[in-house]
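Before we proceed, please read the two lines closing this message. Report back on whether the structure tokens fit the sequence:
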Amino acid sequence: MDQFLDAIWMEQGLSKNTLRAYRADLMSLAQSLAKSDKNINGARKSDLLDFIAKRIKSGAKPKSTARQLSSFRRFFRYMQREGLRSDDPTVDIEMPFIGRSLPKTLTEEEVDLLLNAPNIGEPLGHRDRAMLELLYATGLRVSELINIKQSQINFNQGVLRIIGKGDQERLIPLGEESQRWLKEFIDGPRMEILLERQTDYLFPTRRSECMTRQAFWHIIKRYAEKSGVRQKMSPHSLRHAFATHLLNRGADLRVVQMLLGHSDLSTTQIYTHVARERLKSLHGEHHPRG
């Protein structure tokens, strides 16, 4: 449990109150299971359903139940991701509908400040700028970004091939700006980072390895502080900004759904809550980095 809480704090910079809420939810489940001589690490779907049923019977509201289930889901997905168990017992448990929303997203001006923060005169700074440009231009998940290999980019067609959640493949168009930064990085700074070493990963570390999610989170946080962006940041801040700014500029919701790799349109619709102002003149562009 402590490892999980440390991991989500490192990756998302959650507040102490949020971390306390996660701990309280997990402790509540653990204590309930202990009464039946069961351990939270080995909890089954039936155990979780029994716990939720008891909570509802005692008068728990849908919002509270949804928050607890969300805590459990993230905990078991973490365990699965770390190889601590082979399954996720929450996967088929339906979340109570209470409405969904996003935190306030970055403005286009704040995105520009963030993108201009890396020192592109240094190989690692150039790499970071290329990563941020690509992230904002495509709305990739951080896990997708750090695992990109050169073979996934087709400059002739101007597309990026991504294998997302559930092994679903999607092709994402690359704008001129992101293509320019990628080409400049590949032709020079990337080779300086690798020296004589070889790797298929597009954005290698000094050790020629794949960057971790935690390392990229620290990069985002550092550049936000350097650029003076006061908005609360997370590794997915640019993904949120990508979707919101597209909708602000009149993009079709289903197009955004396809680009983000959402299987359900309702997941994409949460961005409409923070994308209410439509720009009347698009000047032939649908995206600031198009």
In short: The chain has two domains: 2-81, 108-274. Confidence is low (pLDDT under 50) at residues 276-286. Strands lie at 153-154, 159-163, 169-173.
